[in-house]
Amino acid sequence: MRWLNDVPLPNPNPNSLPGSATFQGLVNAVTWFALMACLVAVIIGAVTWAFGSSSTNAAAASKGQKTVAGGIIGAVIIGASSILINFFYHLGFTLSH
Fold this sequence. Notes:
The protein is mainly alpha-helical and 97 residues long. It has two helices and no strands. The chain has one domain (20-96). Helix 1 packs antiparallel against helix 2 (58-96).
């Protein structure tokens, strides 16, 4: 496996690519829209849950609970995505050395 020693290790540098600032701005905008969608899901789910509970409509209350949970889980995944990507990227380096 001597040939593995000749493979250069990746060194990501966002400043070395043209348009990387624009791409980072696009990623930030998509992240913002996704977080706003999670917020809307939590608000709509909470309202549905409240109306379902107050009108003894178990199906609506359950749907509202699931919508609130989905919005919260979505926000957690969005927030943790860069941490998870960096963790697994660095884990790959420890596996190759």
